[in-house]
Amino acid sequence: MNHNIKKCIEHEIFSPPSFAVLLLTWILPATVLEAILGDLMEEFDERSKANIKAARTWFWQQATHTSMIYFKKIFNSPSFIRKLNIVIPLVLFSTAFTLIAWLSYADNLAEYAPGFWQTLLTGQAHMALFDGAFWSSIGDYLSRVDSVWFLFDGPSLIITFFSISLLLYLDRKSTFTALQMACWGYALVILPYIWAIIHINSNHFIATQIGPIMAIGLITFLYMVLPVSFLVHRKLKQVESNAKYKDEKIN
Asked: What DSSP state is assigned to residue 115?
């Protein structure tokens, strides 16, 4: 066997698992990565002299455990949650807009799955997201949008106004934490849509009556998701600022 090939194989066998090293590199902050990885590699070298299989298993365990500790720190940090609170509402806003545009301009449901029309008549517009025909035709429906008037809905505006006012009032009265603001805010975002589904299924409406009720649920969702995201974002910034102030005071 070629000496270089043999050397490469030996290096691969007696090296720690490459995916475990990548996991640590991806999750650990640069400030601690070199020190932690160096300690693990040193211990791995010692263990591999006795049993390479056991050493690799040990390295995986240490890498997973260490990564989870730092992942929890990252996930629980206000800055990460703040970024998540921006990305997810933007995705939800785009999804709601797409569904509303589709409901406004869709004119042929024959290509959808059997029984889809009946599902739609129960108010479950979100089920369109799970149908391939929706995604294959959505570009066509979006290209037909030539104004934003189809997004205007009086009842939805009224519900949004009172919901946001309620959030601001409750915050002033009891000073919400970021978690409380998120729970109350996003509950108020989704509540009109849930109400619409329950209302439709609790009564015997004809198809032309179902559309306006679905519109209230979806358009209110569209109106509220970004303002609520802003309120939660503001709370998270306060938490982050308070934490920095405490750290500076201690130091």
From this structure: T
Q: Is the pLDDT of residue 141 over 60?
A: yes
Q: What are phi and psi of 143, to 5 degrees?
A: -70, -20
Instruction: Please provide the average confidence, as pLDDT, over all residues in the chain.
Output: 86
pLDDT in tens, 152-161: 999 999 999 9
Domain boundaries in the chain? 3-76, 78-250
- CA 129 to CA 125: how far, in whole Å? 8
* CA 69 – CA 132 distance, rounded (Å): 40
- Residue-wise pLDDT for 213-245, tens only, equals 999 999 999 999 999 999 999 888 887 787 776
Note the residue count of the chain: 251
Residue 193's nearest CA partner among 233, 150, 224, 161 is: 224
Contact 215, 156 (CB under 8 A): yes
